[in-house]
Amino acid sequence: MGIEIRHDEEQQRFVAEVDGAEAVVQYRQPDEHTLDLYRTYTPDALRGRGIAGRIVEAALEHAQAVGLRVVPTCPYVARFIEKHPEYQELVAD
Predict the structure, then answer these.
(1) Does residue 43 have a pLDDT over 90?
(2) Could you tell me which residues come within 8 angstroms of residue 47 by beta carbon, excluding any fewer than 6 positions away?
(3) What is the pTM of this model?
């Protein structure tokens, strides 16, 4: 499934628009070196399609590309990182 994920810096979120609905990963930036990924939301109609995982991956890839550490406050993000150890190095101490 080809979905486009965009980084909405103004609202501090990563967004996928699918079938007229938005799935998001929201973040805060507590300092210039860190992203706190605190909320993942996927509407019921879009669940079970791997969309949340794709958005979390996009957020983590962004953090890696720009040299940011990540605080996985959202339980979904924390589980995603546990299952994908290649992102473990991004987790802030």
Answers:
(1) yes
(2) none
(3) 0.94
